[in-house]
Amino acid sequence: MVSVLTDKVRLVTSIDLGDDPLALDRQVCFALSVASRSVIAIYRPLLEPYGLTHPQYLVLLALWERSPRSVRDLSQTLRSEPATLSPLLKRLEALGYVTRQRNASDERSLAVALTEQGQDLRQEAEKIPYQVVERLGMELSELEALHSALARVLEATKTH
């Protein structure tokens, strides 16, 4: 057990975060934030020829798994708010990759589907994960372990 004295309370816990629990380089949130920005920067030049941003690419990944999908379903899959998706979908529609149509049986529901151009883009996009792995310069086993750890982090944060 570790006893941590703060200004107001003494916290007794089995977690030992070392001498300085607020050291920036020890913060999981900082490492995740910087790693995320850095990895997205690797994607940027790979997506640019297609006129895509990383968030738009994520939408297409979800649609390549299954299309059409409702905005609500896309929102849940991508763990984002529908309002965040709206501008992404508008831009993808302007690029000719998707269409958005009201559901005939439920006017409140908007269906998003890949166009032929969006479907064809998949073949080109299949190169991207290989290029990202190559540019990261990490062993595939390391990336798989990282992905597994991040999946556990995502699962742990679902309840909070």
From TrEMBL:
Primary subcellular site in the record, as a coarse category: cytoplasm
Listed SMART domains: HTH_MARR
Protein's UniProt keywords contain DNA-binding: yes
Any one cellular-component term (Gene Ontology): cytoplasm
Keyword Flavoprotein recorded: no
Alphabetical keyword list: Cytoplasm, DNA-binding, Transcription, Transcription regulation
Biological process, per Gene Ontology: response to stress
Cited Pfam families: Staph_reg_Sar_Rot
Transmembrane spans: none
Domain HTH marR-type, first and last residues per copy: 25-155
Top-level taxon in the UniProt lineage: Bacteria
Localisation: Cytoplasm
PANTHER family for the chain: ORGANIC HYDROPEROXIDE RESISTANCE TRANSCRIPTIONAL REGULATOR, TRANSCRIPTIONAL REGULATOR, MARR FAMILY
Record-given protein name: MarR family transcriptional regulator
Source lineage: Bacteria, Bacillati, Actinomycetota, Actinomycetes, Pseudonocardiales
